[in-house]
Design brief:
This is Jasmonic acid-amido synthetase JAR1. By secondary structure, the protein is an alpha+beta fold. It is built from 20 helices and 24 strands. The strands form five sheets. Strands 10, 11, 12, 13, 14, 15, 16, 17 and 18 form a nine-stranded antiparallel beta sheet that branches. The termini are far apart. Bound molecules: adenosine monophosphate. Adenosine monophosphate binds next to strand 10, strand 17 and strand 18.
């Protein structure tokens, strides 16, 4: 029995968003009262004032590097009120894949509460349109390693910090259906073994599964690529009731073995379904016939996996999940029937105090989303209810966990309003990935260039499995290097050369085009890497303590990221140089 009604969650959300401006003032007051003793705030001379005007006048906008020295002191065991009134007892590590290395961030009970509020809210809206019964969920979720900081605090990824709590377990029972896999799989010490067991447990409960989930869509695509390799072994385990010898972690082995019984009929049915599928199209729908949808974050850096995810899902709806970060949550998807490409996030006005830095493109620059570039002029920050529909902003927020006017580095567009709270569309990370001189290209620009060039491969029924980029300045002039892993090595030289030219032509920012024309940037290089290379890169990040649940392929590899560059360079099988500009 559910402990809360979905109607009451929707009512609560409607109430909260009716006067979002008032909620914001109230939330800021609570944050500043609760954390008024913190050294950080004391030094800024707020003197107990909690109104937005005084707050903005006294407290500067900051980035993570400004707060890092304070967070390091907390991690080193200083329990004085540094960023918050109450001492911080846990640290979150960001995935590290957007910035190159994990950031340390404060983690508090309030973040657990806001996570649950976001999950509950989007679930209530989702369930109104796609009701699910009391079944199970095939969830590809993984905890990451937990380490102790110098000061003895537990440091792990934000998702793991959340999974560890009782509140998560209770809320999940209410809203997400029970995970098919036991805790020993989620908290297993070997990601590959956990993945195999998630698939196996999902198959054991195939009739009960109501939906398929992972935090980021990449994990679902990754899981089904693995399924293509191991499906016969999974069938064998189900047929005999004996778990594959590949599962060696004792606790995981014991927990999953308990669920396994010899089930030759189920094994036959899975086997027959798999052999009937054409190139694995619709495998999720076929094997989990009662699943209603596939759920996970599908926006931003997950967009490149959408085609493959659609392929595996067949006609099951794809529903994109909420928007947040290790720093804190921001908005919930309350329009679940929108396709992932146009999904929006309604900001919850009571979980933080939000500000938006207007980003204007100078006259003459492209303004379409498809030509997203970074030449922005920044305006004065505005409040949550002052944003304008159609405009782009960088978000900055203040929350209960000790972050004040913190710039997250994401660019968002206001798509509309739900009552008086904005619905945001994720555009891209603000940081540049590719830049040599006056050229400026973001992750989004790279993604669009890859999408354009990959169309040439589609004719040959080939796909880009994953991609990243690098700037090679070892020789004058510097040039862009794009690494592609392909679904097969059947691509002809001719096609790959056209792809390389197409990539070069698809970076349309004026700085790049003019530099290419005069030879200030050299011909773009397309490097094809062996199958499995991006898997090795992921393993490398997991070894560093990252979590599969938060993994995002880094779309740019800098010169200092020696290990990842080595993995890429050692696996290059062929290279092409663009002849598009004739220079
Ligand atoms: P991390 O804290 O390492 O998990 O990464 C947080 C970042 O992931 C955010 O700042 C966004 O750039 C990205 N992100 C999180 N949620 C979404 C979403 N729903 N859509 C697009 N990007 C997202």
């Amino acid at each position: 029995m559910r402990v809360f009604s979905l109607e009451s969650v929707i009512d609560e959300f409607e109430e909260l968003t009716k006067d979002a401006g008032q909620q914001q003032r109230e939330t800021l007051r609570k944050i500043l009262e609760q954390n008024g003793e913190a050294e950080y705030l004391q030094k800024l001379g707020l003197g107990g004032r909690t109104d937005p005007e005084s707050f903005k006048a006294c407290v500067p906008l900051v980035t993570h590097s400004d707060l890092d020295p304070f967070i390091q002191r907390i991690a080193n065991g200083d329990t004085s009120p540094i960023l918050t009134g109450k001492p911080i007892r846990s640290i979150s590590l960001s995935s590290g894949t957007t910035q190159g290395k994990p950031k340390l961030l404060p983690f508090t009970d309030e973040l657990v509460q806001s996570t649950m509020q976001i999950y509950r809210t989007s679930f209530a809206f989702r369930n109104r349109e796609y009701p699910i019964g009391n079944g199970k969920a095939l969830q590809f979720i993984y905890s990451s390693k937990q380490v102790q900081t110098k000061g003895g605090l537990i440091a792990t990824t934000a998702t793991t910090n959340v999974y560890r709590t009782e509140q998560f377990k209770c809320t999940m029972k209410d809203i997400q259906s029970q995970c098919c896999s036991p805790d020993e799989v989620i908290f297993g010490s070997d990601f590959q073994q956990s993945l195999y067991c998630h698939l196996l447990c999902g198959l054991i409960y195939s009739d009960e599964v109501q939906f398929v989930f992972s935090t980021f869509a990449h994990s679902i695509v990754h899981a089904f690529r693995k399924f293509e390799d191991v499906w016969e072994e999974l069938c064998e385990d189900i047929r005999t009731g004996v778990l594959s010898s590949r599962i060696t972690v004792p606790s995981m082995r014991a927990a999953v073995s308990k669920l396994l019984r010899p089930s030759p009929d189920l094994a036959d049915s899975i086997y027959n379904k798999c052999t009937r599928l054409s190139n694995w199209y619709g495998v999720i729908q076929e094997l989990w016939p009662n699943a209603k949808y596939v759920y996970g974050i599908m926006t931003g850096s997950m967009e490149p996996y959408l085609n493959k995810l659609r392929h595996y899902a067949g006609s099951l709806p794809l529903m994109s999940a909420d928007y947040g970060s290790s720093e804190g949550w921001i908005g919930a998807n309350v329009n679940p029937s929108l396709p992932p490409e146009s999904v929006t996030f309604a900001v919850l006005p009571n979980i933080g105090y939000f500000e938006f830095i207007p980003l204007e493109k100078p006259v003459g620059q492209e303004t379409e989303i498809s030509k997203a570039t970074i030449h922005y002029i920044e305006g004065e920050p505005v409040g949550l209810t002052e944003v304008e529909v159609g405009k782009e902003y960088e978000i900055a927020f203040t929350n209960f966990a000790g972050l004040y006017r913190y710039r997250l580095g994401d660019v968002l567009r206001v798509a509309g309003f739900h009552n008086s709270t904005p619905e945001l569309q994720f555009i891209c990370r603000r940081s540049l990935v590719l830049s040599i001189n006056i050229d400026k290209n973001t992750e989004k620009d790279l993604q669009l260039a890859v999408e354009e060039a990959a169309k040439l491969l589609a004719v040959e029924k080939l796909e880009v499995v994953d991609f990243t980029s690098h700037v090679d300045t070892s020789m004058e002039p510097g040039h862009y290097v794009i690494f592609w892993e392909l679904s097969s090595d059947a691509a002809t030289e001719e096609v790959l050369h056209s792809c390389c030219n197409c990539l070069d032509m698809s970076f349309v920012d004026a700085g790049y085009v003019s530099s290419r024309k005069v030879g200030a940037i050299g011909p773009l290089e397309l490097c094809i890497v062996r199958k499995g290379t991006f898997h090795k890169i992921m393993d490398h990040y997991l070894d560093l303590g990252g979590a599969m649940s938060q993994f995002k392929t880094p779309r740019f590899v800098g010169q200092s990221n020696i290990k990842v560059l080595q993995i890429l360079n050692r696996n290059v099988t062929e290279c092409y140089f663009s002849t598009a500009y004739g220079i």
